[in-house]
Amino acid sequence: MTSSVLETQSTNFQESKIIGCLPYQLLHIASHFSSKDEAKQLLQIIHVRLEKGLIRIASTDGHRLFRFEFKSNEKNFYLEDDVTELKLDARAFKKSNLKAEKVIIFENGFSQVFNKKHRYGVDPVNPIFWKSSIEGTFPHVDQLIPDKFSCDPKKPIAFNSSYLADFGKVVSKASNGVVRMFTNAPTTPMIFEARCDLEGLEDTKIQYLLMPVQIRD
Description:
This protein is α+β, with helices and mostly antiparallel strands. It has 2 domains: about 1-135, DNA Polymerase III, Chain A, domain 2 (Roll); about 145-210, no CATH class. It is about 20% helix and about 30% strand. The chain has helices at about 1-15, 25-30, 140-145, 160-175; strands at about 20-25, 45-50, 55-60, 65-70, 80, 85-90, 100-105, 110-115, 120, 180, 190-195, 205-210. The strands form 2 sheets. A 7-stranded antiparallel β-sheet has the order 6-2-3-4-12-11-10, with helices on one face. It has a 5-stranded antiparallel β-sheet with strand order 5-1-7-8-9. The longest helix has 14 residues, at about 1-15.
C-alpha cells in the first residue's frame, strides 16, 4: 500500500510544474512565529512574496513578526516570475530536520523536501503541502517596520520574556549569536536583527519585530 501511494504521489509531482525552491531551515524558523490560534487561520501560515527580485518570507502571530528577505535565483532558491505569493501551512514545517536543505514547491500544491544526500524525502502518510485557498490579505508586514530609527529612548523598555527567548534560540542556531536592536520610543516596535549564517544564505539578515509591553510598578 505504501509503495502504491508513493508511486501515485511521484506521478503527481512529475505532472505538476515546479514553481519554487525555498530554504527549509528558514521555513522552519518562520513556523515558530506563526499563530497557534485556530480562529486566526490567516496568521497560521508562512507568507512568501516575490517582488522586485526579492523573496520575502514572513510570519506573525499578531504579537511579534518574523521577516527574512533574499534575492530570487540566488544560491538556487527562487520563485517563478509568474508566482508572486505563496501561503504555506506553518504546521508542516514545525519539525526540525537538520538534513533538510530545500523545499520544492509544485503547482498542484504539494511540496517535497530535498536533503543534503540529494534525495527527495516524501512522507506518504503526511505529505507537506501549502494552502492556497485561505481568504484574506496577509498583514502588510513591511509597513509595520519603521523606515528610520532614532535609537535614543529615554525610558526603560519592557518585553515579554518568552518572546525574547524564542528569538534568542533562533539566533543561536542560525547566526553568530549577536543581536542588534533598533527602536524609536518605549512604546513603538523594537526591531531585533541578526546576521544569517545558514548555508547559501550568508550575508543576509534575520529580522524580528516585537512590541514592548506596558511597565507596571
